[in-house]
Amino acid sequence: MSDDLVARVGAWLVVDPDPTDRATIMGLLAEGDVAELRRRFDQPLSFGTAGLRGPEMAGPAGMNRATVRRATQGVVAWLRETGVDVSRGVVVGRDARHGSETFNDEVVAVLLGAGVPVYEMPRPLPTPLTAYALRVLGAGAGVMITASHNPPADNGYKLYGPDGSQIIAPHDAIVERHANEATRATLGDRSSPLHHVVDEGVLESYRAHMTSRYGVTSSALGIAYTPLHGVGGEFALDLFARAGFSRVSVVTEQFRPNPEFPGLPFPNPEEPGVLDAGLALAAASGAALLLANDPDADRLGAAVAQADGGWRVLRGDEIGWLLGSVALAQAGDDDVVATTVVSSTMLEKMAARAGVTYRTTLTGFKWITKAAPGRRLAFGYEEALGFAVDPCVADKDGVSAALALAHLADELAHHGLTLVDRLDELEARYGVHAGAQLSLRVTPPHGREVLSAVMARVRENPPERLGALALTEVVDLETGWNGLAPTEGLIWRLGETGRVVVRPSGTEPKLKAYLEVVGSPGAADLAAERARCAALLVAIRADLARILALDGA
């Protein structure tokens, strides 16, 4: 065992406040388990623009009390370095994962010990409510303990800036620098006059605003709902009732928070099989719409009943078109709509026809919410089931998005139409926009190196064709594009018919490819056009799987 590793382990043990974690590390040291110690110490969690996210375990590569203390010390120093008045305070929220309450307590103690006022959410609540409370209270920052839709073993630390949205560079680097320099933290406790619990009136103002905007007098729409064992259940169900949606059935076995997420190794509405229980309930209850939030309720999955009795699970882009069609119809002269470079290109075409300003952003909601400086972001979405339907929350919000989609479905039902009918109308007008993804997971601890090697290989040797389509343009996002900040990723254009974006995931050890095939507007036979585009997608995806083979994964 190298002297360097022993020194790093020793330094960590000095600041780790958790006796169980210290015992784990000391046991590994006594056993001489170099491989496991290197796994925990060689690649510490780094504070990125999504904050921290990783497995809950002892050592700097995991989410634990020491990691959270250091990160919070970094946040305090960042606020002071960037000139934010710390007397504005920090809003602190949490979900119901393993460790979330403990990590929440650490954040509160460090902030109070540093003389920073704390506004603590009263219980585990959806992530977007932390972002909302930050703005309402005029706080200087917000911290949310959550790993969103990650597997049960993970947890995370999400940071919002004074504007109520997620931080972007260089702020992440400032937090990271100060966190790395942190020593022992001075701790406070909740008896401090600086400690406040966020008043229920703040939550009530959110409910009042959303029900005023998306409520109905009384709806006969049948809805099935699942929070996927997360924190959205009670809050969303109450919001539906207040908004006039009385025919809501819930997936009972998934309604209460459960950090084990039984039956859902990846509690993400995008993952195959995750909506199965919801679909079964929707069919049995005669619902017309299934709505699903991820565990921290910042994302929304949905499925709609079809005329043949089957169910259609909507892609994130399709939900984005539906919600975007409403936002564009209501948009004012100063409004902006936005989506990301990996999302469908249809919203841009919809906005052009509506005469509304459109922006393409980098991947991630931290960019979407900053797409309209000085103006109103009327609507923003990302294909990964993130939607911002109201600017009062400067982040994705699966709860308000669920209410907005239910409102649209109810409105269409009054005219004898469904969400499927609206999608048909949009694709008839703008052309079929068929989409698919290819996601290739890599294995720690060298996952990032594998991803970098694959990206370097395909950057130097792009394919000449994908499926039946010739590659007509290569855009390297690493050099910046259309005013966007440089980021790791490639766009391969396939004439006017197709586009592929290849990039490493920012939050998971994955290489992801986003495919889109665009048909001609006004197709006489929409079903035939969809079949043609789908066949092209299948061929392109097959070629990509071969080209992006992850050696060493």
Task: Give a description of the structure.
The chain has helices spanning 3-15, 19-31, 34-41, 65-81, 100-113, 127-137, 171-180, 200-214, 233-242, 276-285, 316-330, 346-354, 365-368, 398-413, 419-430, 447-460, 526-547, and strands at 52-55, 90-94, 118-120, 141-145, 154-160, 195-197, 223-226, 248-250, 289-293, 300-305, 311-313, 335-340, 357-361, 376-382, 386-388, 433-441, 465-466, 469-470, 473-476, 490-494, 498-504, 510-518. The longest helix is centred in the last third of the chain and has 22 residues, at 526-547. It is α/β, with parallel strands linked by helices and 553 residues long. Strand 10 and strand 11 (311-313) form a beta hairpin.
Total tally of structural domains: 5
What class, by secondary structure content? Answer: alpha/beta
Tell me about the largest β-sheet.
6 strands, mixed
Which CATH top level class of the largest domain fits? Answer: Alpha Beta
CATH topology of the largest domain, by name, is: Alpha-D-Glucose-1,6-Bisphosphate, Chain A, domain 3
What strand order characterises the main sheet? 1-5-4-2-3-6
CA-based gyration radius: 24 Å
- Tell the overall outline: globular
How far from one another are the termini?
27 Å
CATH superfamily of the largest domain: Alpha-D-Glucose-1,6-Bisphosphate, subunit A, domain 3
CATH architecture of the largest domain: 3-Layer(aba) Sandwich
Mean pLDDT: 95
The helicity comes to: 25-40%
Number of DSSP strand runs:
22
